[in-house]
Amino acid sequence: MTKIDSVDLYYLSMPTVENVADGSQDVLLVRVRAGGWEGWGECEASPLVSIASLIAPMSHSACQPVLGSVLGQTIDSIDDVRRITALVRANSFDQLQAAHTLSGINIALCDLLGRRYEVPVHELLGVRAASPKTPYASTLFGATPDETRAEATRLAGMGFRAVKFGWMGFGESSLSADVDQLAAAREGLGPDVDLLVDAGMAWVGRPDQARARIPALHDFRVRFIEEPFVAEEFDAYGEFGTAARQVGVAVAGGEGCHNVPLALTMMTHAGLDYVQIDAGRIGGITEAKDVADAALSQGRTFLNHTFTSHLALSASLQPFAGHGAEGLCEYPVNPRPVSYDLTTTHIPVDGDGLVRIPDAPGLGVTPNRRTIATYLQQVEISVQKRILYRTPDLDVVSPADEEIAA
Ligand SMILES: [Mg+2]
């Protein structure tokens, strides 16, 4: 039996973080080590808050530090990943950030097992041959329609069969401003590339504003509209979706789900056509797999949510590796250097415009230690002068870990 020896978190950041809807500006990287093997994961998370969730002293029995449920646990099979995940859920139930921290750990444990048994993670999940995916280039609207048009032209020229634009005030100002952005996107893409739109929760509490956009979404042949509302607005989703589907526009959502029950409930009660799950937020790869299986059985399309690194991309592709050939997947096209350079290799778009999930052991991508060193933010958390956390050395288990473990 192999025991988990260490869980190390690394906070990386661009020198400046801008107030824009771009989650690739910083990274919370996770390394787990067990019996001489190691694995890597990434949390879709506010890094410092998630580090606190790892080591914050117990507040009560359902509010324990995540680390206590992971360190020293047996890790020999994917069932152990599921068992450890359930233990963190129970012991840190009332510590809301725990889902994000757990996600990166779950991903790293899957990577570790894959490297140890020399199989890709999807094989650990029961999928022998991964299907290729059709990547949609995922980016933000331009600041102006001209910028959007130019970016659409560029991405179509790169061979993408589908492109998603989002955020940057879309849905928040006038209907005519949104029409201008949609027209520019469609013009730049041409008639044959699928256009997808991420509303970025622009219509929270304003379902009338969402409904008012449906004719324009239809006119510019938007394949799906994503996140018109926050995840929990099931009724608004349901009513909007009914109207949108009548004109051939599908509804996507789910990236905000941080546990399986919420994702399953949202899927059915919000009536999602596309279920978008981020393995770095929902609790990890095994949790995302549960949602993917349920979506498939209900005839809904499962998608990854990924806007950051190719480590996160590989992790979020594994849960639906076995779903139908050439189905869509989200593919980040403009990540910041801290995210793009996080791995030494990348998951390319091939000459046919398809993405192939790595078949190398684990997640099939390896963190770039030079990038980590370049963007690493040294963190120290102490209470009453007792150090609870200090950024671990990249290669040596730090004394602080022993202290936390004790
Ligand atoms: Mg989104």
TrEMBL record:
Keywords for this protein: Lyase
Gene3D superfamilies noted in UniProt: Enolase-like C-terminal domain, Enolase-like, N-terminal domain
Lineage: superkingdom: Bacteria
UniProt keyword DNA damage, yes or no: no
Ranges for domain Mandelate racemase/muconate lactonizing enzyme C-terminal: 145-250
A Pfam family of this chain: MR_MLE_C
Record's keyword annotation contains Lyase: yes
Protein name: Mandelate racemase/muconate lactonizing enzyme family protein
Organism, as annotated: Dactylosporangium fulvum
Record lineage: Bacteria, Bacillati, Actinomycetota, Actinomycetes, Micromonosporales
